[in-house]
Specification:
The chain is mainly beta. The chain is 7% helix and 31% strand. It is elongated, with a radius of gyration of 14 Å.
């Protein structure tokens, strides 16, 4: 598995905010992307830190054979 993301500003673990199944729906899709996860540092946001840490992780479509995922 992956390591849990940590804020680059305060070194606290980031909070998982949402997960989006990008493989379904009527929106225009990014080639090779199936799942999107968003993590934020609520500690920095609450403290008013304008450089609050966040990470967006993109996961490949397991059916995509182009190898373009993970952008």
């Amino acid at each position: 598995g992956e390591e849990w993301p940590v804020c680059e500003n305060c070194n606290e673990e980031l909070d998982h905010v949402c997960q989006i199944d990008y493989s379904t729906g009527v929106h225009e899709k990014l080639e090779g992307i199936s799942l999107i996860n968003l993590f934020l540092c609520w500690s920095c946001i609450k403290a008013g830190n304008e450089d609050a840490g966040f990470i967006v992780r993109l996961y490949p479509d397991p059916l995509d054979k182009t190898g373009s995922a993970g952008v």
